[in-house]
Amino acid sequence: MKQRILTGVVAAAVFLPIVLFGGTPFLILTYLIATIGLYEALKMRNLKLVSIPGFISIALLWIFLLPDQYIDVIEDIGYSKIELALLAVLLFLTYTVAAKNRFSFDDVAFSILATLYVGIGFYYFIETRNAEAGVQFVFYSLFLIWATDSGAYFIGRAYGKRKLWPDISPNKTIEGSIGGVVCAMIVAIIFTFVADVDISIPKLLIVSAVLSVFGQIGDLVESALKRHYDVKDSGQLLPGHGGILDRFDSLLFVLPLLHFLNVL
């Protein structure tokens, strides 16, 4: 527990000031974290980042992460993100032939989905930070996830009886999950008093409940991925916490939904 707390304090001391500062340091940090997350995902399937498919995955991820403000870099050479993604698919498939199926069609599918899984969440991390009142919504998302996780843990330990999804995460309970949603809604109420944002309390409560549910789904998705590939943690970068995907699994779902629900 001491190691977990120490890692959390050090990580927050590095991460949060850069999020507050924004700009190029934040963009570089996000690219770095996303690349590590992709490495962790590929490693679960024993795919190497330092390889031809790995380089294609990185290139696709970095293109996908490119903020809207820099989209001219791609458009000036006559392409769109979608077209470059399709080109990456063709390169992946070509490599299956060159590798004589040591890199298989299934590996292609995994590489593409892993890149999208990581890329979508971190792309919207960048877009959320760059939006009007973006800093406030980044911290809202972080506190909402922390409240959901803490509420689910403590309420689950105190009152949990019915398992939520034992085949994926045997310790999670339905009571804990509901408790996490309630705690997230409390965070939403506090947010309306400390943040200067144009959103009604009823709407924010509904949005927070939805985000809390999908944050828990994001956690379960990563748990399912680890269980399928028989790994305990996605990585060892953060002692006591695991890897990048272990820490950002909920955020990868919450941040895109902030935009899909027209909150930003």
TrEMBL record:
Transmembrane intervals: 6-34, 46-65, 77-96, 108-126, 138-156, 177-195
Involved pathway(s): Lipid metabolism; Phospholipid metabolism; CDP-diacylglycerol biosynthesis; CDP-diacylglycerol from sn-glycerol 3-phosphate: step 3/3
Coiled coil region boundaries: none
Gene Ontology BP term (one): CDP-diacylglycerol biosynthetic process
A GO term from the CC aspect: plasma membrane
Stored Pfam families: CTP_transf_1
EC number of the protein: 2.7.7.41
Entry's localization field: Cell membrane
Main location: membrane
Record-linked PANTHER family: PHOSPHATIDATE CYTIDYLYLTRANSFERASE
Protein name: Phosphatidate cytidylyltransferase
Protein source organism: Bacillus salacetis
